[in-house]
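pinned: reference chain
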Amino acid sequence: MGTVSNQGIAALRQTYRQVSRGLWQWCSQRGALLVLLLLLALALAVSYAFPQTPAHIRSDPTQYKEWLSTIQVRYRNWTSLLEAIGVFEIRDMAWFRVLLALIALIALVSLGNQTGQLIQPLQIKQPASFYDAPDADTLTGTLSVVEATACVQRAIREAGLKTDRETDGDTTFLFGHRARWGAASAVLTQSATLLIAVGLAVNVGWGWEQQDVQLLPGSPVPLGPEGNLSVELQSSSVSLDEALVNLDGQQATVTGERSMCRSSLGCQLTDQSGPLIQVSAQRTDGTRLKVADYAVRPEPLDSLWFTFARAASPQDTDRLFIVPDERLVVRLKWLNQNEQQTPRFQQWVFRQDGQELVGEELIEIQDGESRTEIDGITYSWHVSHYVTVEFDYRPGRLTSGAGIVLLAAGLLGQLIPRRRIWSAVHSRNGHTTVSIRQQRGGLSIRRGRAADDEWSALRAEIEGKQ
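pinned: its C-alpha cells
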C-alpha cells in the first residue's frame, strides 16, 4: 500500500514538473506575449471607440438608466446588444483584468529570462551539434591550426567584432561579438511591457472617468465613485476658450485641450455652453436690494445666477426676477443666441402687477461686466459661462508613460546592427577543419554579397587557393 502511495506521489510530482516546465516555456515565448498584446490593443481600441460607463453612476441604477437612455439616441436598436456583451464597460470586465494579469505574468517571466541571458557570461565554446545547423559553414585546408586560427581571427576583426578565444585540447574556439545590445534591448522591451501592463491594471482598479460635468460658480460638484473630490467653477472667459476651476482648494485652468489639472487627474472642456449671468441691485444711495427668482419665489438673495443654454429654443431666452422691496418685476432677454459673440441682453422693468413699464435698457457687456440704471435703481451684471468638463483619473498614467518610453528605447535598440560569429578550429588526419556559424540581428550593415565576399576570401585562404 505504501509503495502504491509513493508511486502516486512521484507521478503527481512528475506531472507538476512537466506542467510547470510547459507553462514556463509558453510564457517565455514572444509569440504568446504578442498575441495577448494584440488582444489588449483591440480591447482598448473598442473601449475608446464606444462610451464607457462613468464611475460615479455604476452603483446607481437610476442614473445608469438615464445615462443609457442618452446613449440609446446614438446607437438606437443596437444599444441592448452592446450593453449585453459589455461594450460600455470593457475596462471593468473580469476577462480584461485577467488579460492584464496574463500579460504582466508573461512579461515578468520573459524579463527574468532576458535578464539572465544578459548577465550570464558569453559562451565561447559550443558543442559539435551547434555547427551542424544549416547556416553553418565548414572549411577544410592544409594550414596548421595556428595559421587557420590566425586567419579566422583576422576575418573577425575585419568584421569589426571583438574576439574571445578558448582552447580545449586540440580544438581552438573563437567568438566574435559586439556589445550586447540585443539582450539589453530585449530587457528594456520586456520591462516596458510589464510597466505598461501594471499601469493599465492600476488604472482599471483605481481609475475612473466622469463625463459631462456641468460646473456653475458657487456650486461644488463631487467627483469620483465615492465623491471624495470636489470641483467648482470660479470663472470662465467670455471668449469661451478656458475656465478656472477650484479642485479641493487648488486652482486649475481647463481648456479645450486635454491637460493635467493635478497629479494623474486629466481634464478637458468638452462643451462651451451659453452665458451665465449674475445680477444684483442697489439704490442710488448705495443701499443693496434683495432679488428673487420670479418663477420659484425663494428667499430673496443679494444676487441671482441665470443660465442660458445655447441650444435652447427662442422662447427659453427670457428670465424673470423680482425686487421685493421696490415691488418691481424685471424681464431679461438674451438677444444674440445664434452668434458666437459677446452676449447682449435687453432689460425691461415693470411694476409688480406687470401693468406699468418703468423703463428698459440694452445691456452691453464689456470685459464681462455691465451696469444699467432705471428709475433710481442700479443693476449690476456680471457675465461668464457655465461649462461642461470631462475628468479622468488615471493613477497608473506615469507608470504606463515610463513603460512607453522604455518600449521605444527597446525597439530602437533592436535596430542596432548585431552580429556574432562562432568558430571551432581543429586538426584531423593532417587536415585542418574550420567550422563557422554566425548570427545577425538589427539593421546589419553587411548583408548579401558583402558577407558572401567576406567568407569567400576566408575560404580561399583556408583551402589554400590564394
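why pinned: The CA atoms of residues 237 and 243 lie 6 Å apart. The mean pLDDT is 82.
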